[in-house]
Amino acid sequence: MERRSRKGDMDFVLRFAPPTREPFAERRLFPSRQINIHEEIIIHGGLYEIGESNESNEELLNQLKISNQLIGNIAVIGESSKHFDVLISDILDLIKNILELYETIQFNKKICDCLIDRIESTEMSIKSLKRHKEENVGYFLQQNIYYGYHKFIDLLERIRHFITDISQLHGLRKFKSVEKLKEHFRNITREFDDLVINLRLKVTYSKKDQGVRDDEAAEYDGAALTKFLENVDGGITTSNKKINPIFDEIIIKRSQISDSKKVKFQTKKITKLDTKNYDSNNTLNNNNNRGGNIHKMSYESKFVACKYYDSEQSPRFDNELAMLQLLNNSDNIIRFLGLSDLDEGQVLIFDWAEYGDLQSLYEKYTLDWPVKLNIALGICRGLSFLHGCQILHREIRCQNIMINERLEPKVANFNFGRPAKYSRYFVENLTAVVHWLAPEKLRQGTKVKFSSKCDIFSFGMLLWEIAFDVIPYRDWSYTNIIDHVKAGKRESIDFGPNPSEVQKDFAKIIRAAWQDDPTLRPGLHELFNQLYDLTQKYPLKEFTPPTRKNVTTDLDKKPSSSNLDNNNNNNIIIDGDNDDPIPEVTDYKIDFLPMIQPILLIEEGIKLHKSGERKPAWECFQSHAKLGNHYAKYWKAHYLTEGYHIQKDIKQGTKFFKEAADEEVADSQLRYAFSLYHDQIIQDTDAFLQYLTLAAENGNATAQFNFKDGSFKKPTKGYTIFK
Looking at the keywords, is Transcription regulation present (predicted)? Predict the structure, then answer.
């Protein structure tokens, strides 16, 4: 320790240089008991308790004692810990960033969970250590601990990069195999656990138990990823089942588009199609075009879709069109062929979708389940490609899925190719997408970012749409849909009294995808694996064109969302050892499980009371009063004394007013005070004054008014006198 002083102002600069001898470094300087910072520093016990005495420890404690006498305890603490403050701040910032990554995880969620569990536990320990510096001064005087914090920062940085890589499709390319990924995970957790021990951080997990969870997570995530890569194809993987390197190129060029300074540089030349290759004899007239400005034309002996657009668009729009061509690597994304000039102006050229969009297909044609499963699988594959490019669709619904002549789905109308001011566009079209929109967006709007989990929720609603051949919440008002979804409710899943096995399996996938908690929604690769299993179980044997519906009859048979709250209690028998009837799940309400019975928040009960809905308000107050909530007791007393919804019971109401008053509820103190006042007579003067005074002191305006300017005077015996 170095000590310098100037006469007069006694400005001391302290430098603690703890002994580097190994025996001292191994001893416990993280006290196990609460320490009084104002205790005098002594050799054995007190603030810096050391297990055994030796020359080095004696010297350190003597230096600390002198420092304490010179500059005081608090200054000693500040000097000893100041070099750790910056490190702790960096660690907490890194942890915050890692926890934010959790919201974007798409792959290897269980592996990421194991890392997040460790990080959250160490965060608690470090925050506690920061709050209790005065009890752990010796901890901050150890050079090896200081070095350990630098190592911890480096490790957290590597964990952040690791989670980023393994949770996104393009990042997984960095690992040569799934086994290499699992090996890296085991190495990084081992390093983390060893460093936590060396830093003597008190964590909440057991290394042994956490190791078991690590192994289970690695096996589960590894198997899911392997299965996905083996079966997905469709441009996501190469011929040897490796992740397509095209994702890196697309992500880099997409970032260039997002950078306003680079927008002026076109990332790739847009293909220009020669008009002489058009077959004018096969050009369809405007009466046969597909809605709006989409026209069917023949180009080099195949049909294409031509869409007129404003050629005066911004450079950003041109770059986005160039990006669209890179997405042609996917078999399940509508192919953008390029630009061309027609007499009426410039057009965008896409592959022609013979059956139009998926909504038009299911409205006009009967689709059997093998066809529906293959369509759902193809859409999932297309969305997986988009997410691999870090592109969110934002409007997943059957109307934005095009169907070609082979009934193959092509994802269309996603972010690229839309106006630059997409947020404004999205708000203006909210009424069109609300049927598929995730509950977190309905609840929080722009306060929460649109994420891959929002797309997955919309995909779940699309699967429901495929299952029942109708848009969700048909004939519902905009506000009714929002209120319904925000309340955690969903569409009815009712296949009738005897659903098939494929319908029951498909319903499980729907329910998984539209979970209210975004973190519970499976990744697209998990949904793909489940849909793939169904296509193998119920294969499409050979392609046959779909059969047209009898439109009038079939539309009448479609399930109506207006019947959502009607419970179907039909029972079915499933083959097995148990012959007891198993209740069929026909609605999102799973009535046969021992579900939690929710109660409204007190605030919601008050709102119901103000709007005149006394029955649910009473049930809310009654439930919370049973739980001991003081404000609920006040409201229960209010209902009892006024006879709202229930029979009036002034005696019982007064009892609850007093209970709430004794717990400092000001309104209840006022009401109880005046319950003692009948026909100009106060039954208990002391109690009346006591509770009225308490109400006034606790801010009740009515009570304060009675005391203001002497308008309330202490009563004579049995009476109150008011001016």
Answer: no
